[in-house]
What we know:
alpha+beta, C8orf32 fold, 2 domains, five-stranded antiparallel beta sheet, 10 helices, 23 strands, 44% strand, globular
Amino acid sequence: MTNKQIHKLYLVLLLAYLVIPAPVKLQAQIPDSNETDYFAVFMQRKKIGYAIQSRVVAQGKVTTTERLSITIHRADTPVTMNASETSIETTLGQPLGFEAAQEMSAMTTKVTGTVDKQGMVSLITSTMGEEQKSSFEWPRGAVMAEGLRLLTLKKGLKQGTIYTANIFSPGILQAVDIKIEIGAKQIIDLLGRVVALTKVTTTYNMPGAGEITSTSYIDDELRNQEVIMPMAGIKVELLACAKEFALGENDVFEVIDKMFLPSPQPLEDVRSTKSITYHISPKPGTEKLRIPAGDNQKVQQLEDGKVIVTVEPVTAPSKVTFPYKGDDLAIMIAIRPTRFVQSYDKKIITLARLAIGSTDDAGIAAQKIEDFVANYIENKNLSIGYASAAEVAASRQGDCTEFAVLTAALCRAVGIPAQVVTGVAYVDDWSGFQGFGGHAWTQAYIGDKWVGLDSAFKGAGRGGFDAGHIALAVGNGNPEDFFNLVGTIGQFKIDKIIVTK
């Protein structure tokens, strides 16, 4: 059981909220400068880390770097996660390159991109010393930190001003549409420092997740002083402060209890259950629930905002050959390697062949892979922040997210389409909790059905995928695929459960 994929997204989103640096006058020649701001990061008023933002102008280039470090506790186990993003632009805001790094425990992933004059990006992705090169076209009209700063200077802070932008995030390697609304000045207490600041509301249109909104309070020089955002029902804040306080001691913040949903009734022998129907209602003040339908769950949206989800696991069809040779683009995408599901990795290919043996039946192969991963990960370590499949193959440690990405990678390595699913799953007793907790598993495309696989549950002796799983997001195991989960978990409750044996 895990919720760390959500906290990985905190890193990406929190960095995104720091993209408006200190201004300088609009002029043809911008003098060299070096500016640094420090922030303390809070969850529900407990300090959990810090953020550092720097902006360096030199030799006609503007380099903006945001660094973030947070430590949370899961079942009394501290997990520290670090991330950084750097954008390199001309003084006119034109993109030249970028870097992004994410470190979860001992696992580090780094991407470096260079943008040429034709708008093509040359990308190098490094994971555990292994490099992969690729390229893509720069999103038309997308800006980074300096481009957004210039737009902010142009628009000003007049109350009622509304404008839009398209921001490229190095952390998720894609552009995101945002809407910025300038509000009124307000008196804000910043850890005892009372100042008049302008309220700025930023709405991010996240792919697959809809809208996520943050509230910022900035001074007359456009420096962020406070950023507030609700994430998975938890209030997250960044407050500008002295360097010594930002880098000082953190509080203990336990997140396990905040990522569990109570069940209206205990569920017995879930593995043998044919189907379970969940009556779900959004919490007051939340947006419309976005729960995906699929082969394993049917979703009925009611007019009052409530949702009925019926989960009935499908069985893999027999005598389906692999590798997949169809031409369905969505299915073909589920075979391709990604940054976190590296099905091209030599060790993963070796493990996949070892797992499936001589079988030529896709359903049996997927089952063998599920069983193999269930036993392959030896150290079920809660301290792992978020590891890729290649990292898991090497370390043989992690929890449900590591099980899920490795299972997906092994499936893809032999030509079986597979996706990583995140949502909630029922547990009888985990660290003293009974109910539904954040979880990750895998689904493989066999014949014409997506079949659920849960190597983490199987490895824990719980049987595997069953009707006690509610999917909230489906993707390739990359950070951007979890945005829907971030926007949904903690925003609803389960009112009633109907079990069909």
